[in-house]
């Protein structure tokens, strides 16, 4: 009886240890440790043409050194709630591995606490929608440890619209879709 109980206790301890090693990171557990801005022209932005100027830095409300574990910054283009409605393939989940909000990687760069900027030309395969920018800071293991976004918590302010390149438009102008998406002829 005692050995059965001991085996049970050991298996529970091992299970808890393994679960903590492979624990899923929850968005709700991350601190907003980055300040991000996204500048672009007024109006609807065109995929494949327009640029967004991104700037980010360490959130000054955090104590000095709080970013000592930060190694990289990964910046994403993310769907705003209006572009997620009735689209389960864009659904927001608290578990980052299951989250479909930020499907477009813009850039991954080494972390610096200030002076970060990147000019991003909107890629040609970005679908029509309303978006915002979010960045995650990664530790040396590649795990998300903080974030920042150019919108408020409810994802209402500072959103922008992108118009996709449509297949019909490509057909009408006589340019094969492959060339428009990749800039060169296939083959």
TrEMBL record:
Entry keyword rRNA-binding: no
Biological process (GO), any one: response to nitrate
TM regions (residue ranges): 162-181
Signal peptide: 1-23
Keyword Membrane assigned: yes
Family annotation (InterPro entries): Transptr_NO3_Nar2
PROSITE patterns for the chain: PROKAR_LIPOPROTEIN
Keywords recorded for this protein, A-Z: Membrane, Signal, Transmembrane, Transmembrane helix
A Pfam family reported for this protein in Swiss-Prot or TrEMBL: NAR2
Recorded superkingdom: Eukaryota
Family matches, as PANTHER family: HIGH-AFFINITY NITRATE TRANSPORTER 3.1, HIGH-AFFINITY NITRATE TRANSPORTER 3.2
Descriptive protein name: High-affinity nitrate transporter 3.2-like isoform X2
Organism: Nicotiana tabacum (Common tobacco)
Gene: LOC107817196
């Amino acid at each position: 009886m005692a050995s059965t109980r001991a085996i049970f206790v050991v298996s529970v301890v091992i299970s808890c240890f393994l679960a903590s090693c492979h624990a899923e990171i929850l968005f709700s557990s991350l601190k907003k440790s980055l300040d991000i801005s996204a500048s672009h022209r007024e109006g609807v932005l065109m995929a494949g043409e327009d640029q967004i100027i991104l700037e980010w830095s360490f959130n000054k409300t955090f104590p000095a050194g709080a970013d000592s574990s930060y190694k990289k910054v990964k910046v994403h283009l993310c769907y705003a709630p209006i572009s997620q409605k009735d689209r389960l393939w864009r659904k927001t989940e608290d578990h980052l591995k299951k989250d479909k909000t930020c499907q477009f990687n813009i850039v991954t760069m080494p972390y610096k606490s200030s002076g970060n900027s990147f000019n991003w030309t909107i890629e040609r395969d970005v679908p029509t929608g309303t978006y915002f920018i979010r960045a995650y800071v990664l530790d040396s293991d590649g795990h998300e440890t903080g974030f920042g976004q150019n919108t408020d918590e409810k994802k209402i302010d500072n959103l922008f619209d992108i118009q996709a390149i449509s297949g019909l438009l490509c057909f009408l102008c006589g340019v094969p879709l492959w060339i428009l998406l990749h800039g060169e002829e296939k083959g």
